[in-house]
Specification:
By secondary structure, this protein is α+β, with helices and mostly antiparallel strands. Helices cover 40% and strands 14% of the residues. The chain has helices spanning 2-8, 13-26, 30-35, 38-45, 52-68, 76-80, 87-97, 107-116, 124-134, 140-153, 172-176, 234-246, 315-320, 328-336, and strands at residues 192-203, 206-211, 222-223, 226-230, 253-255, 259-262, 266-277, 310-313. Helix 1 (2-8) crosses helix 2 (13-26) and helix 8 packs across helix 9 (124-134). Bound molecules: iron/sulfur cluster (SF4).
Length: 344
């Protein structure tokens, strides 16, 4: 249940179904998940996006192993102390898995309650209180699931089926003709636009990736090196930025068509540039981290200044690397694209 709940955050059921069994086969219980490396967990999560969920799930397994001997606590308050577990998930696990008298307010329940009580912008705390008041103490898990199901299938966001609703007789918004306005939609800020100058650096059949710093956007995942630029910066600015930051001769950078990738709070216009280098000292050294020091001072090789922290991946390693979806188009080109940039 925990795994499906984590996967279902921000991902549709049909997508989750494609990954759920494989993930459980790889990590059949919390012990296996706690013992797994982060790379293995991210690899099994690959394709689902929002990788922070995978990292939190693994962190949760480790806390449960250390603090609770691998057994999930039954109490909602203790569940809430675990990484990635908020009030909804704690209530859902406590009530459905352990029969505890806890409410679970997800987006569907929020909508049902908002309409049932004709509330405009109810606070989470108020919804929690209302849900707790309505809870059937004999079957809290079934009750919570029934409310969620009602919201998903009857009290739908658009076109609610009030004529078929078992709550119609008590529903204030229905009685007052305000169903469509309840609850008021939460305004979501538009994602911030960023132009991402991106370097596809290939040398002797290997491509250079870097591991993004932990925390922040795509933290801890592999990625193509690059620079964030203001929206609309354009090809010339992106070329300059990559050249300055990575020591690539501007003329050696071949522009690939840009594409967009939208995260929850950020939208990237990815501007990829291929830098196909002639073979060098690092070529063919495997996927290990290069050891060359970041050069400093006059006379240092410009290319050398860009080496520290890069990982050189061959074909099989790139295919298996946990890579965010934002970079999938580039991986596809490298693995399936034109012959002169195919990796070994
Ligand atoms: S009567 Fe309509 S608005 Fe009210 S809970 Fe049922 S489906 Fe939702």
């Amino acid at each position: 249940m925990l795994v499906s709940e984590f996967m279902l955050q921000q991902t549709r059921v049909e997508t989750v179904l494609r990954y759920y069994d494989g993930f459980l086969a790889a990590f059949p219980d919390l012990h296996a998940l706690a013992a797994a490396s982060e790379d293995d967990v991210l690899r099994a999560w690959q394709g689902l996006g929002y990788y922070g969920r995978a990292r939190r799930l693994r962190a949760l397994a480790q806390v449960v192993r250390e603090r609770w001997g691998g057994e999930l606590p039954e109490d909602a308050a203790r569940l809430r102390e675990l990484p990635g577990v908020g009030p909804y998930l704690a209530g859902a696990v406590a009530s459905i898995a352990f029969g505890r008298r806890e409410a679970a307010v997800d987006g569907n329940v929020r909508r049902v309650l908002g309409r049932l009580f004709d509330l405009d912008t109810p606070s989470p705390a108020r919804l929690e209180r209302l849900a707790a008041r309505l809870l059937d103490p004999r079957r809290p898990g079934d009750w919570n699931q029934a409310l969620m199901e009602l919201g998903a299938t009857v009290c739908r966001p658009r076109a609610p089926r009030c004529a078929a609703c078992p709550l119609a007789a008590w529903c204030r918004a229905h009685r007052r003709g305000r169903v469509k306005q309840r609850p008021a939609a939460r305004r979501r800020a538009a994602p911030a636009e960023v132009e991402r100058a991106t370097l596809v650096r290939v040398r002797d059949g290997r491509v250079a990736l870097e591991r993004r710093p932990p925390g922040g956007l795509l933290g801890g995942l592999y990625g193509f090196p690059g620079e964030d630029l203001p929206a609309g910066a354009g090809e010339a600015a992106a070329r300059r930025a990559l050249s300055d930051a990575w020591g690539a001769p501007p003329a050696a950078l071949a522009a690939w068509p840009p594409y967009r990738h939208v995260f929850t709070h950020r939208a990237w216009t990815v501007r990829p540039f291929l830098w196909a280098e002639a073979g060098g000292a690092e070529a063919g050294t495997g996927a290990g981290r290069t050891q060359r020091k970041r050069a400093a001072g006059a006379g240092a090789s410009e290319a050398g200044a860009s080496e520290a922290g890069l990982l050189w991946l061959g074909r099989a390693e790139l295919a298996a690397a946990p890579l965010p979806r934002a970079f999938e188009p580039l991986r596809r080109v490298l693995l399936e694209g034109s012959r002169d940039i195919l990796l070994m």
